[in-house]
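The aim of this short unit is practical: by the end, you should be able to scan a pair of folded records and say something sensible about each. We start with the first protein, listed as its amino acid sequence and then its C-alpha cells.
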Amino acid sequence: MYDPNGVNSSPNALSHADVLKIFSNFLTTKPMMAEVIINKFPFIFIDESQDTNKDVVNSFFELQDAKSDKVVIGLFGDTMQRIFGGGESELGKTKPSGWATFNKEMNHRSARRIVGLGNQVRSEDDGRKQYARDGADEGFVRYFLLPHGLPGKDDVELKIRAFMAEVTGDTGWTDTQSKETAILLLEHKMAGRRLCFYDLWDKLSKSDKIKGRISEGENTELNFFSHTVFPMAEASSKENRAELMSILRASKSPLLEATVLDANKDDPLGLARAAEHAFRDVVSNEKVCFRLVLQVIAKHNLLRIPAKLQSFVATSEESEAELEPDQAGARVEVEAEPEEQDDSEIAAWAEALETDFFQIRNYKDYIDGNSIFRTHQGVKGNEFERVMVVMDDDEAGGFLFSYEQYFDVKELSRDSQKKRDEGEETGLDLTRRLFYVTSTRAKNSLAHVIYTSDVAMLKKNLIAKKFAREIEIIEV
C-alpha cells in the first residue's frame, strides 16, 4: 500500500522515500523499465531539479548517458534555491557533465537594489549574476538590528512595517490583508506566537508524527476541528440555519440518518436542534477548550468523532445514559478505529485538547494562506511587492541553520568546521541559500529584521560582506 499524501500506517505500507528508491533502482538496473519510459516519454523535463531526490535525478542522468539518441532530458531549477534535504549537492557543478546550460540573466521581478543584493549573496557560491530589466526602479533594502530577548516583538515588528511604509511611500506595508506583502519566519511556531495559536501548535508538535502533517494542513483530527467544527461554530453563532444544515449534511451527521429521523417522526429535526443549541452554548465562551467542545459534540451525537479522538469522549453507552428517553436511536457514532495507535499522538492530543478552541480560527487562516505570515522555506517560487524577513535563531530553535554564524557573529561549531574543512556542506550553505531565497522574493522593498547577540558586530559584518550600506542599517 502507498499513499502519496503520507498516510502509510499499515505494517506493509511503502513510504514516499521507499517509492523513490524503488523507482531509481528499477530505472538503472531494469532495462525494460528504461525502454518503457523512453518509448512513452521521449522528452522529460524535471522542474525544481535542485530539490529533486538525489537518487532519482542521478538515475535520469544515467538514462540520458545510456539512451542519448532516444531521449532528451531537461532540468529546470536554481541551485541557490536548494533548501530541502535530499537534493543533489553537485547539481550545476560536477553533475551532470557535458550538458548544455542556459543561464537566466535578466531578472524581470525585482528592483535594482534587490537584484544587486541577490548577486552579492550569490558571489559566495557560484558567482552567477542577474541584471534588472531596463527601467526598473531602484527599490529599497533596510536592515533592522535588534538584541535577542527584546520584549514586545509584535509591537516592534509592527512599528518596523510602519517605518517601511514611510520610507517607501507604500501604505501596503501596514495592510495586514494585502496579498502583496509577506512576513517570512523561520518556523511555523513563530507564526503561532504572532497569530495566537502557539499553545495548540506547541502541544501537537510534541508528536513527530503529527508535527509534519499540521504544517501542511493534513492532520485528520485537526482538520475535523478546522474544516467542520469551527465553521459550524461560526454558523451557529450567527444562527445561519442553512449553513448549519449544509455542514451537517456534508459531514454526514448521525442525527440526520434515516433511522434517527424515522424514530422521531413528530419532530424529525428535534434532536439536531437540541444538539445545536447545546453546542452553541458551549462555543459562546471565547475561552472554551477543545475538550469541552468535543464532549458536547459526542454527548449529543452531533458529528462522528475521528478515531484518534475517541478516547477523549464518553463511550456510546455512557453518552446514551445521559440522553433523554426520546433521543433513542441517536447513539454516539465514531469513525472506525485505526489499525495502529501511536502513544505520542494520544499524549499530544491530551494536552492540546486543554487549550483554547478558538485558536483554530487563526491556525486555519494561516494554513489556508490567508495571513501575511509564511515560512522562509515555503515561499520559494513566490513573489511579493514587499517582504519582511524575520531572522531569530533563538526563537526558531533550529539546528540546520544559523544566521548568527552566517553573518560571522558566532563561531562555527566544531562539527560544522570539520565538515567545512573536508569540503562537505554545512548549515552555513543552507542558511546562505535561505537568505538568498527570502531576499529575492521582493519586487520593490525588502526589510530584514535580525535578532542578534551582538548588534555592533552584526552591523560591521553586514557592511563588510557588502550586503548592506550603512545608511540602510537601523539599530533598534
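Turning to the second protein, read its sequence before its C-alpha cells, just as you did above.
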Amino acid sequence: MSFPARMAQALEARRAAAGWRQRRLVTHNDTRTLEVEGKRYRHFSSNDYLGLSQHPAVIAGWRQGAPGAGASGHVTGYSRCHAELESQLGDWLGYSRALLFISGFAANQAVVHLLAQKQDRLLADRLAHASLLDAASHTPAELRRFHHNDVDSLTQRLASPCDGETLVITEGIFSMDGDSAPLAAIAAATKRADGWLLVDDAHGIGVVGKQGRGSCWQQDVRPDLLVVTFGKAFGVSGAALLCDDATADYFLQFSRHLIYSTAMPPAQASALLAALGEIQRGDALRQRLQDNIQRFRAGAAGLPWSLMPSASAIQPLIVGDNHAALALSQRLAQAGCWVSAIRPPTVPPGTARLRITLTAAHRPDDIDALLEALHDATGE
C-alpha cells in the first residue's frame, strides 16, 4: 500500500471512531480562563496546577535570560542559569546531580534508550506514559508490562530470571487516571530483585510533598532515577533527571539527547528558577488547589458518570463511548466550560472520558459553574 493510501485509510478510520484530534487556536489563556475563536471559557484542561505560568516572578525571570542557548550544552549552550537550576533541583530533591532536558518526553526517551541493552528487561506499569512505553518498545531489551499499580503483578515478573539488568518504570501520579502509584511497595519489590527504579513524577512535583517535592518525597522513596517535568506545576516547560554522580557522568558522555540537542534557552532556565522559588513557598497555592479538588468531588458525587478515585488535580469522569464523551464536552462548552474529551488510543477502549483538571487559579464560582453544567447535562 502506498504512503498516501495508507495515510488516507488511517485518517478515515480515526474519523469513523470519533477519535479525530483537532488543534484549536487559543487567543487568551490565563489558566483560569481560555479564549478560543473569540469566545471566553472557564478553563478545566490545563496542567498549570499552581497557576505559575502567569506569575509575575516567572514572567520576569524569563525576560532576564537570553531567548536561545545557541548550541548544545556540550558546546557553548550551558549557562550560569542552567548550572544554578541543576544545583538547586538536586539540593531540593536530595540528589547529587540533576540534568536538564528540553521536554519530559525527551528526558524519558533519553533515560530508557541509553540504559536498556539486549540482555536487560524493562518492567513498566501498563498505564505508564507514552514517552516511557514508546522508548521501552524501541530498545533491544525485553519489555514486560505489569498490571496498573499492582505490586503482586510486578513481583511475579521480577521473580522471572533475567541475564541482564532490570529497570522498573512507573509514574508518581498517572496523567489520565489521576491516581498515585504505591511507590514504597514498588521500590521495596524492585530493591529485593536488585533492580533499578525509574519514576516519572510529572504530575506530582510541585503539588504534593513537603515544599512540593513530589510523590517520591511524600512516600519516603528515593528512586535511582527520578524525572521531573516543568510543564505542569512549574508552569513553563522542560524536564530534569535526578540521579547520582556516576549516572550523570554516564549520561553526559553517552546520551545523544543531551549531546546533539540544543540546550533549553537560558530564559527558560531563569524562569524555572523563579518558579522553583514560588513552589518552595507555595503552601497556600497547594492548599487552594486541594480545596478546589474537595469542592469539585463533593459536588460531583451524584453524577451518573463514573468519577475515578483521584485525590490529585486530575479528575477523570469516565463516559465510555467516544461519541458520548465528545457530546458531553461540547455540551459543557456551550455552558462556558472548556473540558477536553480524551479518547482511545490515549486511554483504553471503552474508557473515553472528560479529563477535568483543577488548579489553584480556579475560584469557587468556577467549580460551581462546572458542576452546574455537568448536572444540567444529565437531563434530569
